Amino acid sequence: QHQNYLDSRISHTLDLLEDHIKAAHQPELISANEIRETSQGIVICLSDWHIGAEYYSFNGYYNSDIAQERLGKLLSAVLNIAKQHKITSCVVTVSGDLISGSIHRSIQVTNRENIIEQIITASELLAAFIIKLSPHFHDIYVCGVSGNHSRIAKKDDALKDERLDHLTLWYANAALSSYENVTVRLDELDSTVATFEFKGCLYVVVHGDYDAFNETAVQRLVLWLGYKPDVIIFGHKHYPAMSECAGITMVQVGTLGGSGDDFTQEKRLSGEASQ
Predict the structure, then answer these.
(1) In what order do the strands lie in the sheet with 194-198?
(2) How many angstroms separate the CA atoms of 200 and 214, rounded?
(3) pLDDT tens digits for 211-268?
């Protein structure tokens, strides 16, 4: 008898649910077209190109020619997004380590170009990337920081501001001086931190060697800055990630090379190329 009672209740509940489904109206949802019309800005995050490195292994391969090819694919993806969402404003952030440098033995072994050639190649690629973007946006803002791979002395002896990555932004600024819709910022508040405001949000760009991708490091960075940004963009760790800390969006950019070099082989690390 008890089971019959339960079956009856379930049957009655299902009947009520069926009547509700038949009578219900679909809720109003924002259409894809409406989303595109309100999306007007794009932030392109570049980091860890390691230009100069050359390696070929079973789980990754890379050299400067491959870097150029992958940047071409990134450019196509960005322009497709911009066209789809009718985007007219663009920010390009550089989170450092555009060159491979020579800070470790394993890096020196895999380098194809010397440091001067690395700087020239990385600078030319960065400038070319922005030049290709310029016809498709009303305004482009470029900013960035240096990475640890470009320091010119051993870690314990290196000065914070003596990092060669800064030359790539300097080169881009000179190469793009005739492009009225492009602004390259060189006078950041610190060589390890870049800041900008875009579409009502405050952004901070760091490499990641001084500021780890975790809550403790973010709290220290916020206290040091004296204000709370909306977004912090990191590089350094070579894999893409996103997290949130006390209302701050944390975005970590991947590496253009992916895995396959001596370091990742020795540490048994693997990952796809990404930006």
Answers:
(1) 194-198, 201-205, 231-234, 248-252, 241-245
(2) 25
(3) 999 999 999 999 999 999 999 999 999 999 999 999 999 999 999 999 998 888 888 9
Q: In 180-224, which ranges are E strands? A: 182-184, 194-198, 201-205
Higher pLDDT, 191 or 80: 80
Q: Taking Cα atoms as reference points, which of 92, 166, 93, 175 lies closest to residue 136?
A: 92
Hunting for tokens 């701050």 — which residue is that? 248
pLDDT at 175: 94
Nearest alpha-carbon partner for 192 in 236, 227, 157: 236
Q: Using CA atoms in the order 74, 76, 80, 81, what is the torsion angle rounded to 10 degrees?
A: 20
Question: What are the tokens at 97?
Answer: 């380590």
Q: Are 230 and 243 in contact (CB under 8 A)?
A: no
> Phi, psi at residue 72, to the nearest 5°?
-65, -40
Q: How many residues does the chain have?
A: 275
Beta bridge mates, 62: 55
- Residue among 103, 99, 89, 97 nearest 142 (CA): 89
What is the pTM (predicted TM-score) of this model?
A: 0.81
